[in-house]
Amino acid sequence: MIPSILLQIIFFPVLVALFIFLFRYQLGKKAGWLAVFGIAYTTGLLFVALSSVYQGNPIKVDYPLLINPDIRFTLLADGLSIVVAIICNLICLALSIFSIKYIDHRIELLYAGIDKKSETSYYACFFYLFMLFPVGFLGLSFAADLIVMYFFLELLTIVFYFILAYFGYYERVKVALMFLLWGIFSAIITLAGILIIYSQVGSFQIDQVHAMSGSPLAFWAIAVILVGLFAKIAIVPLHVWIPWVHSNTPTSTAALMAVYANIVAYIVVRVLVLPLWEDFQWFGPPIMVLGVATMIYGALLTLGQTDIKRIPACSTISQCAYSMLGIGALTAASIEGGLFFFLSHIIAKTVFFSAAGMIVYSTHIRDTTLLKGLAQKMPMTMVLFIAGGMMLAGIPPFSSFIAEVIMFKGIFERADVIGISVGILGLMAVLITAGYVGYFTMTIFFGDMPENLRKDPHVKDAPLSMSLPLLAVVLLGIFLGLYPSIVLDLFEPVITQALLNM
What's residue 468's pLDDT? Predict the structure, then answer.
């Protein structure tokens, strides 16, 4: 039962997606709730797997796919991957519930006047595509083979392309194509780095990557893969796609775009840092410099926005770089803090971006200069917006605060000029984040409400089916902030053991 549980976790959502596709007309609007059931079921399986990992029993599945080259469908649930998988799946679960009302509204706006059958088809289309998000994120979390990891990463790229093209905002097909081209660029470069590793190791298994440690080509493998992955995580100067793509992603999947970008931090640690610790040392300072530059640039860029959906989109540039800053410091504490911040960020972005989208949902206005005093008619949305902003800014009691404390502790542990200088600049970026959260909260929710908004009966809090899942995510952020050891106790053995073996 236990080894096969990983296969169920990966493939059950695929079966649900196929069922929704085949019986879309019979299911109608029930397709959304079937998707919720599918993700809830895999969440239960994940907690069963967690209990095994917590008892010190990692779960591994290994099936050969090809003999030459040797490609194996290998999955590993250990202290690192199980935490990433559970948080990603919980976010997918919350957003699947959020989507039930949201996507109905989105289809009405995009495809007004279509017949009922076509409307049902689009509704089902969204949910069978949505079911592939947990497949991609969980497959990516558990992948223990480089080709399997690559497959799941690019599966997410393809799914996002169709979501953007069918359900996105302004110039959605053009934006979807932009995203796809960036994804192809990233994919080709990343694959080149993977093939360099294979040429030296003779295997795609991640636990064999350490065999090329000290090889002259190890430097180039790391460099090439980092360039490919930096295009996904939007490190300056490879960030230009995020403000356009992320801001035009449907609100119910926008947070998943942040997961797609920020999960790169986990991949870098799993594939490069832990197996190639000595070879990776050279890359630490440049990553720290690029990370802090991206943090400050992204925060300042966010502060200058007037499009409410570009606010969280631009903040993703800054927030993803926090994790890379911690990883670049290359201390056990900074790596643990960087990965914990990655999880905290995707929790925060789920709430912050969704709250911003709920404002557009109710007002149909994206220009913040036209929004004032919304607290009067949208108090729940205001609470969610503030909570999401507090999480982004690392304010207690949310998990992002603990993550930042651990991460910056590890950065200053370096006790060198780069560590201290970059650490101080990183703290300045935190202050800018708190500043733009406060500024936009005051701008949007306080002051005198414009006459057109005061008289508009549609300006009100979104349905509870949209706000309650977000409140649950807020509580998750608080819970992990009060009990961070639940995550850190799982991270630490994997990271410290890998470093001790170096």
Answer: 96
Q: Residue 201 and residue 195: Cα distance in Å, rounded?
A: 10
Flag whether pLDDT at 435 surpasses 70: yes
Alpha-carbon 371 to chain mean position: 28
Using CA atoms, how far apart are residues 142 and 10, in angstroms rounded to an integer?
A: 9
**Cα separation of 395 and 438, whole Å?**
12
Q: What's residue 500's pLDDT?
A: 64
- Cis peptide bond prior to 216, omega within 30° of 0: no
Provide the b/e sequence for 293-330 (b: ≥16 CB within 10 Å). Answer: bbbbbbbebbbebebbbbbbbbbbbbbbbbbbbbbbbb
Q: What percent of the chain is modeled with pLDDT above 70?
A: 98
* Opening angle at CA 382, ends 376 and 384, nearest 5: 155
Averaged pLDDT, 200-226: 94
Q: Label residue 16 exposed, middle or buried (CB < 10 Å: 0-12, 13-18, 19+).
A: buried
Mean pLDDT of 262-290: 95
Q: For residues 98 and 127, give the distance between their C-alpha atoms in angstroms, rounded to a whole number.
A: 12
Section 219-232 average pLDDT: 96
| Buried-state track 383-393, b at ≥16 Cβ within 10 A, e below 16 | bbbbbbbbbbb
Q: Mean pLDDT over all residues of the chain?
A: 93
Q: How far is CA 26 from CA 19, 96, 107, 124, in A?
A: 11, 20, 19, 10
> Is residue 336 within 8 Å of residue 495, measured between CB atoms?
yes
* Model pTM above 0.90: yes
3-state helix, strand, coil split of the chain in percent (to 5) is 80, 5, 15
Determine contact, residues 298/240, Cβ cutoff 8 Å: no
Q: What is the CA radius of gyration of the chain?
A: 22
Q: What is the pLDDT of residues 359-368, one digit of tens each?
A: 999 999 999 9
pLDDT at position 501 is: 65
Neighbours of 207 (CB within 10 A): 14
| Coil, helix or strand at residue 449 | coil
257 with 245: CB under 8 angstroms?
Answer: yes
